[in-house]
Write a structure and sequence with these properties.
The complex is a heterodimer of chains A (193) and B (192). Chain A has 193 residues and is of the alpha+beta class. Chain A folds into two domains: 36 residues; 149 residues, Immunoglobulin-like (Sandwich), CATH 2.60.40. Chain A has four helices and nine strands. In chain A, the strands form two sheets. A five-stranded antiparallel sheet of chain A has the order 1-2-8-4-5, sandwiched between helices. A four-stranded mixed sheet of chain A has the order 7-6-3-9. In chain A, β4 and β5 form a beta hairpin. Chain A is extended, with a radius of gyration of 24 Å. Chain B folds into two domains: 30 residues; 159 residues, Jelly Rolls (Sandwich), CATH 2.60.120.600. Chain B is built from two helices and ten strands; from the N terminus they run αββαββββββββ. A six-stranded antiparallel sheet of chain B has the order 1-2-3-9-5-6, with no helix packed on it. In chain B, strands 8-7-4-10 form a four-stranded mixed sheet, with no helix packed on it. The chains are: A alpha+beta (193), B alpha+beta (192). At the A-B interface, α1, β4, β5 and β8 of A face α1, α2, β5 and β9 of B.
Chain lengths: 193, 192
Amino acid sequence: MSGLDRFAAGLLWCLGVLCVAGIVHILAVFNLPKLERAEPLVRIAALTNRSDMTLLPHAAPGAEWAPFSDPALAQGACLFDLAHGPMRLSGDIEGDKMLTLSFRTPAGDIFYSMTDRAAQRGGIDVLVLTPEQLETLEAETDEDEPPPRELRLVAPTTKGFVLVNALAAFPSQRTEAEQRVKAISCEPETVAQ
Amino acid sequence: MALIGKFLLAGLIGLLIGLGVTFAALRHGVGFGAVEAGPWTAWPKVGAANIDPYLRAALTRSGEIPLGASEGISFLARRDSAGRRLDGACDYTVSGQTPQARYWTLTAMTPDGRLFATPARRNGFTSSEILRAADGGFTIALSTNARPGNWLPLVYRKDFILVLRLYENEFSAGALAFEPANLPMIVKGFCR
């Protein structure tokens, strides 16, 4: 084998190694969230397995339910599973107290987020549904009817969760912030037959 | 036989390099659309619907549940304004302004995002409870020893990080360049 052949062969091997490294890297990045069994939905479901609003434990030293949680927040979550119908999230908003909501897929991707400033007529009314459920709902609705009062939100996945944050601006307001989280309800929507 | 060995070796080296690069990329959070302003770093895309796979994998590693884009944005500081690592053996002052937001909170945490158990039971401040100067600016004293005014207790010789959360910040975070002057300065003081 001449020197040039050896060089070419070595180069090919190196390219091969790089190819493998690239594939491994891409696979690892995409599959790490699945491998780690740390899916946000799984972690939240361990704290609540009901579909209605559940308060998450207050972030206290040594007892945070998730790292990097803000100790000034009261947090609540509800799980949804749209397999048997849409989910309605509703509640009254009082005054100018901050309340934020995020709608997430099992992997934790946020497909919609909003705050109490987006509330209409003093309340929040969101209908989370699958694309098929939205189609059915729209097909049933008369065109002459006034536009729906609720916000219709199409979820990219059948399962997921909603995270609700209320800020306790002072430590003494924690109980009141927890009450504001609990004032939001999540219920499976009964589909009209 | 020797050829099979070479293939196996190439595959093994490739595997190690691939995993090593992945680990290093996630550990250092390179890229990911990070926005830096002085000592503060934010990842505005983390709360967006079109989060990229690198950021998602990095979140899996850290365990963080980030804020949604409409909820707010978090800034993280691991170093002071002079670029030195934040150390619980030193005093610091955090002062200046924050970008427009409905509320903000500043929290001291361990480098992996846990809270410190301090005797004063304080881990941070909200914008409502802070004492301000006449011009609206504020100064927070970080120290293991009690300080007058806004005192955020530290744990002696424990490394810490600061997390500044802006709730309902005015701008769309995606297209925003943060000026270092709009964010608080972190200045190191006396060390023990």
